[in-house]
Amino acid sequence: MTFTRCEGAEPPEPIEQARKYLRWCAARHEPDDCLGTLHGRRTLDMYGRYTVTMGIAIAGTFEATKESLKEVLGMVVAGRKSVVPWCSASPPPDS
Fold first, then answer.
1. Across the chain, what does the average pLDDT equal?
2. Is residue 37 part of a domain?
3. Which secondary-structure segment (H or E) carries 76?
4. How far apart are CA 7 and CA 81, in angstroms?
5. Is the pTM of this model over 0.70?
6. 62-79 burial, b for 16+ CB within 10 Å, e for fewer?
7. Distance between CA 35 and CA 31 in Å, rounded?
8. Would residue 42 count as lying in a domain?
């Protein structure tokens, strides 16, 4: 038995890609087409797939950068807490 695709019907893979993209947007608490790549269509075109790929990659980079900055700022704040009391407790230098 041979199956043929209905005229005008889209293959399931691009539709599933678009669904995964919309779920990614929802997981980020952003509106439906958060990167504006669907343009009212049900599937992503080639440029839309590129945009989504770059968006996911950049979002991951931003997340990693955010975590690194938190860590660095935590060290800076901890360092200040240990230095500031020491500096304020020292007597003024003799001139």
1. 81
2. yes
3. helix 46-89
4. 70
5. no
6. eeeeeeeeeeeeeeeeee
7. 9
8. yes
